[in-house]
Amino acid sequence: MTGAFPVAELGHFALVLALALSLIQSSVPLWGARSGDARLMGVAPATATAGFLYVALAFAALTAAHLQSDFSVQNVWENSHSAKPLLYKITGVWGNHEGSMLLWVLILTLFGALVARFGRNLPDSLRATVLAVQGWIGSAFLLFILLTSNPFARLDPAPLEGRDLNPLLQDVGLAVHPPLLYLGYVGFSIAFSFALAALIDGRIDAAWARWVRPWTLAAWTFLTLGIAMGSYWAYYELGWGGWWFWDPVENASFMPWLAGTALLHSALVMEKRGALKIWTVLLAILTFSLSLIGTFLVRSGVLTSVHAFATDPTRGVFILGILVLFIGGGLSLFAWRAPTLKQGGLFAPISREGALVFNNLFLVAATAAVFVGTLYPLALEGLTGKKISVGAPFFDLTFGPLMIPVLLAVPFGPLLAWKRGDLAAAAQRLGVAMAASVAGVLAVLLLSGSHAALPALGIGLGLWLIAGAFSELAERTRLFRLPIAASAARLAGLPRSAFGTALAHAGLGVTLIGIVATSAFQSELITEVQPGDRVEVGEYGLTYVGTAPMTGPNYRAEVAHFRVDRDGVGIGTVTPSKRIYTVRQMPTTEAAIETYGLSQLYVSLGDRSERGLVLRAYYKPFVTLIWLGAVVMAAGGAASLSDRRLRIGAPRRAASRTTDPVPA
Amino acid sequence: MTRKQRRLAMIGAAGGVLSLALGLVLFALSDQIVFFYTPSDIAQKGVQPGTRVRLGGLVADGSVHRGDGGKVSFEVTDTASAIEVTYTGILPDLFREGQGVVAEGVVGADGAFRADSVLAKHDENYMPREVADALKKQGHWMEKSAQ
C-alpha cells in the first residue's frame, strides 16, 4: 500500500493544523473578552469548529490506515492483522494507546464545537472564555499526542503482516466502551471550562448553573453507560464471572462519576436557589480533575493492567505535567478568585437544599475514600518501596458505609420543599415505600432464612429507593386521591425532569438489588467432567456432550457442548470455548452466558486435567439488574436532558424563572 | 437560626462526615491491605502464619501438579528461593510454567502457601509489575526488546 495516497501523512498534518488552531482558540478570544472586542471573541467558535474538523480528519485518516491494513504505519502493524474481522479493524483504531488518545481529543474538540454551535445565546465574553479554556486543554493533549504518542509514525521497511490486536479487546463490548466513557469524562471538561470562565469573569449566577447543568447531565449519562458497559465486558470476557474488581482502572472512571453526580445535584441548588455557588465551581473543577487523573492512571502505564497498553515513562511524565498544570492552575485560580463570587440563598438544614448538601457531603467523602484506596498503594511504593494491594475489603469497609446514608436519604430529597422542609410530612408520604421495603426484607428472610439478614436489608434498601422514587410522582399526581383520569392528566403535565429524577433514583435501587442478590445468592461450581457427565448448579443441570474444534478468522478454538436442563427438562445448549489467537499465541476463555429472566447461567472452561475438562459454572440470580439499573439511570439522565427547560441552548440570562409547581 | 449559626452547622456537618470518612479509611488501611512478598522475603523475614499476603514470582518449571477437583499445586520462585503454593479452582488462561504469577492467600503453619486467587499476566508482553521488580532485584531480569 506504500504507493497509495499518503493517508498517514495527511492525518499527521491535520493534527498539526488542529494544534495551531487550538493555540489560537486558547489566546485570541481571551484577549477579546478582556478588551471587549467582539471580532476577537468571534474567533473562538470558528477555531473550535475548524479544530474539531481537523481532528476528525486525522481520526478518519487513522481509521483508513487500519481499514487498509497499511502495516507501514507502526500503529496499524502493532494492533492489527489482515485477517482481523472488519469490525475489529475499526474498533482497533482506539484499542491502543495512540488511537485512544486521539479519540479523547476528538471528543474534547467535539464538545468544544458543540458549545460553539449551541452556545449562541451565551453572553459573548462567557462563550469566548469557555472556548479558550477548552482550547488550553485541547492544545495540551494535541501536544501530548504529537510529541509522545504519534499514531501516524511510519515503519520502513513496511512489515508484511501485523501483530494483531490483543484478543481480549477483540470484542463488541470494547467497541462501544471507550467512546461512551470518553463522552462521559471528557464531557466534564465543559463544566470545568465554565467554572474557570466564571472565575476569570468574576461573575456567576443561577443562569450559569442552568448552562452548565445540561452538559454535566449529558456527560454523566454517557459515563453511566460507559461504566456499565465496561463492567459487563469484564464480566463476560475475562471468564471468571466478576463484574467489578475495584481495579484502579475501574476506579479511574468511577471517581469522576461520583463527583459528577455530586456536581449535578449542587448545580441544581445553584440554579433554583442561587446557593452553593462557590462549592459548585469547586466541584466542577474537581470532577474534571478526577477525569484527568483517570486519564493519567490509565494512559501513563503506572498501573499494570489490560488498559495500560503502553509503558513509556516519557508519556507518564508528560500527562503528569498536564495534570499538575490544569488541576494546580484550576485550584489556584479558585483560591484566588472564589472569594470575589457572591454567595446567596439561605436555607434551613431540613430542606431540599439541605438534602442535596447531605448528598454532596457523603458523595464527596465516598469519592475521597475511593481516591485514597486507588492512589495510596502508588504513593506508598513511590515513597517507601513497600508494595501493597488494596482490594475489595478496603472498599467494602469505606465506600459501603459512606454510601448507605445517601441511599437511605435519596427518597426524602425530592419530597422536601426548598428553603424549609417538613421531614415528618415527607416521611408520611413515603409510607408506601417503607411498607414495600419492609415487605421485601421479610420476603427475603422467609425465602432464605435468618442467615440472609444482611442481603435482606440490602434488597429492602433497593426497594426503598425504587418505591421512594415513584412516591414523588404519585405525590405530584395526587394518585388515588383524585380520580385516575385526573392523575393521569397531571402525570402527562409533569416536566420531563420529574421523570428523570424518578428514573435515575429508581435505577440506583435496581442496580443495588442486582448487586446484593448476585453477591449473596449465587451458586458456584468448579468440577471436572467427562462426556456424558451431568452436574448441577443452582436449579440447572449441565450435561457435557463433548468438545469439537473450530477455526475462526484469526483464532482456533475448542468448543465444548453442554445440554442445559431445569429439573430434568431440557431447555437448550451452551457452548463455552477456549480460543488461541494464532498471531499472539494467546489463549482466551469465551464464557457461555445464558439469560433466564433476570438471572444468568455462566459457564466457562478451565484447563484439561487427567480427570477431564475443568468446568466452572455459576448461577447468578438477578445479575442483569446490575446493568439494567445503570441503563435506567441513564434513561433518567436522558429524560431530564430532554426537558424543555434544560434543553441545550434554551436558557437565557434574562428569562424569568419558570414556575415549577413545588409539592406542597 | 442566624446566618452564622447555619454556617457553623454546615461546617460542623461537613467536618463530621469527613472525619467519619477519614476514620473508616484509616481503619481499613490498617486492617485490610495486603503486602506483597517474594519467596526470598518470606524465607528471610518470615510471615506470621495466617496473615494475608501476595506472593509473586515465576512458576517453577516442572512443579505444577494437578489433583482431584481442580486442586493444583506449584512452586513460585524468584530464582533465589521457592515456596510451595496450593490452590483450588481454575487457573488463569496465561498460567504457565516459567511464567510470572501473583498468588494471594495465607501462609499456613506448615510453611505452605494456600492461595485463594491466582493472577497471571494478561498478554505476552506483560509481566505483573511486582514480579518484574522482584526478579530485577535478584538480577535475573532481561528487558524484553521491542521485538
UniProtKB/TrEMBL annotation, chain A:
GO terms for cellular component: plasma membrane. The chain crosses the membrane at residues 12-31, 43-67, 101-119, 126-147, 180-200, 212-234, 254-271, 278-297, 317-336, 357-379, 399-418, 430-447, 453-474, 498-521, 622-642. Its main location: membrane. It is a multi-pass membrane protein. GO terms for molecular function: heme binding; heme transmembrane transporter activity; lyase activity. Pfam families: CcmF_C, Cytochrom_C_asm. Residues 94-300 form the Cytochrome c assembly protein domain. GO terms for biological process: cytochrome complex assembly. It is found in: Cell inner membrane. InterPro entries: CcmF_C, Cyt_c_assembly, Cyt_c_biogenesis, Cyt_c_biogenesis_CcmF. The keyword Transmembrane applies. Keywords: Cell inner membrane, Cell membrane, Cytochrome c-type biogenesis, Lyase, Membrane, Transmembrane, Transmembrane helix. Residues 320-644 form the Cytochrome c-type biogenesis protein CcmF C-terminal domain. Required for the biogenesis of c-type cytochromes. Possible subunit of a heme lyase. PANTHER family: CYTOCHROME C ASSEMBLY PROTEIN-RELATED (PTHR43653), CYTOCHROME C-TYPE BIOGENESIS PROTEIN CCMF (PTHR43653:SF1). Belongs to the CcmF/CycK/Ccl1/NrfE/CcsA family. This is Heme lyase CcmF/NrfE family subunit. It comes from Propylenella binzhouense.
From TrEMBL, chain B:
Transmembrane segments: none annotated. Pfam families: CcmE. Residues 29-147 are extracellular. Residues 1-7 are cytoplasmic. SUPFAM superfamilies: Heme chaperone CcmE. It comes from the Bacteria. Heme binds at H122, Y126. Keywords: Cell membrane, Cytochrome c-type biogenesis, Heme, Iron, Membrane, Metal-binding, Signal-anchor, Transmembrane, Transmembrane helix. It is a single-pass type II membrane protein. One of its GO terms (cellular component) is plasma membrane. It is found in: Cell inner membrane; Cell membrane. InterPro entries: CcmE (IPR004329), CcmE-like_sf (IPR036127), NA-bd_OB-fold (IPR012340). Its main location: membrane. GO terms for biological process: cytochrome complex assembly; protein-heme linkage. The keyword RNA-binding does not apply. GO terms for molecular function: heme binding; metal ion binding. Heme chaperone required for the biogenesis of c-type cytochromes. Transiently binds heme delivered by CcmC and transfers the heme to apo-cytochromes in a process facilitated by CcmF and CcmH. Belongs to the CcmE/CycJ family. This is Cytochrome c-type biogenesis protein CcmE.
